[in-house]
Amino acid sequence: MDRTEKQELVASMHQTFEGTSLVVVTHYSGMTVTEMTDLRAKMREAGAQFQVTKNRLTRLALEGTDYEGLKDLFTGPTAMAYSDDPVAAAKTAVDFAKKNTKLIVLGGSLGNQMLDSEGIKALASLPSLDELRGKLVGLIAAPATRVATVLQAPASQLARVFGAYGEKGEAA
């Protein structure tokens, strides 16, 4: 890789860091190509990306971004997962690490908030953005059905009252 290619890669990675909300740093020592391919596929399904990076170039790309504090984590065989969804990359990385001990979650950053491995695991336990949207729609829809039920109830009660008065008037 010549100097211009390295500069383009650093610029591209810098742009990636500027446009993402979560970065998770991992060690992947001993993983096979099949395992890496499987992890990348799972990341794509979740709306995240997984990328093996050159540590020195990544440290250069981190300069001037919210993720600059991650520089110390980029030593050894590192890879990063990133996503716009603040939970997707963390959830996928932690789930994969539970099944495959060769992937180790080192830490990460949610914007300028640095997280250690326990922080990433806590973040992974939160519901994803799609799950939260589904719950929100459910919460919004539930009151609407309750309002319709409440609006129908007085009308039926009124009809019963009029019916009772009508029967009472016929009896008299």
Q: In short, what is this structure?
A:
By secondary structure, the protein is an alpha+beta fold.
Run of helices and strands? HEHEHEHEEHH
Q: If you compute it from the alpha carbons, what radius of gyration comes out, rounded to the nearest whole angstrom?
A: 27 Å
Low-confidence spans: pLDDT under 50, at least 5 residues?
none
Q: Strand-residue fraction? A: 15-25%
Notes on the structure:
- With 172 residues, this protein is an alpha+beta fold.
- It has six helices and five strands.
- It has a five-stranded antiparallel beta sheet.
- A hairpin with a 2-residue loop joins strand 4 and strand 5.
- Helix 1 crosses helix 3.
- The chain is elongated.
- It starts with a helix and ends with a helix.
Furnish the topology, listing elements before pairings.
Elements: H1 3-18, E1 22-27, H2 33-46, E2 48-52, H3 55-62, E3 78-83, H4 88-99, E4 104-110, E5 113-116, H5 117-124, H6 129-171
Helix pairs in contact: 1-3, 2-4, 4-5
Provide key terms for this protein.
five-stranded antiparallel β-sheet, alpha+beta, 172 residues
